[in-house]
Amino acid sequence: MKLCNYCGSTQADDVKFCPSCGAADFSNRCPQCGTVFNSPFCPQCGIRPDAEQRSCPSCGTRYFSNACPNCGFTTLRQSRAAQQFYEARQTPNPTVLTYQPMTPQVSPKSRLVALLLAFFLGVFGVHRFYVGKIGTGILYLCTMGLWGIGWLIDLILILAGRFRDSQNRYLETW
What we know:
By secondary structure, the protein is an alpha+beta fold. It has three domains: 1-51, no CATH class; 53-88, no CATH class; 111-160, no CATH class. Helices cover 30% and strands 9% of the residues. The chain contains five helices and six strands. The strands form two sheets. A four-stranded antiparallel β-sheet has the order 2-1-3-4, with no helix packed on it. Helix 2 (111-121) packs antiparallel against helix 5 and helix 4 packs across helix 5.
């Protein structure tokens, strides 16, 4: 569809002069959204002014692009991924993905044993060796529990139930 820039009348695409006013200055009108434009494509939806309206044989939706926006059906040759996507959309009961928050697992190590080891031998990092944190256990051994500060923090974490083993699992069972 063409739109006369002088009188605003709508004309067919093959008309060279406006029959209403005689002007030869036309703009395009998008067949889908009605936007008036002078470029080769509609700035709103990207459709050419000479686009033909199609009807989807699968769901009946009318569209101007190469693929149905409702069900994904296309008249073009589809890639394997596009075919799988289209076939997946055709299943009557699609699988619904639900959000399940990840909860940390509970460590098999005993919280009481870790607390006693930390209290009596914590400056040597024995409680860290017990839960499998070998690297920080060696660090505690060499620095006397990070000069007592790391030992105190570990005691508080074990008492609060926030201390974790080498697999990032909480020590919860006493």
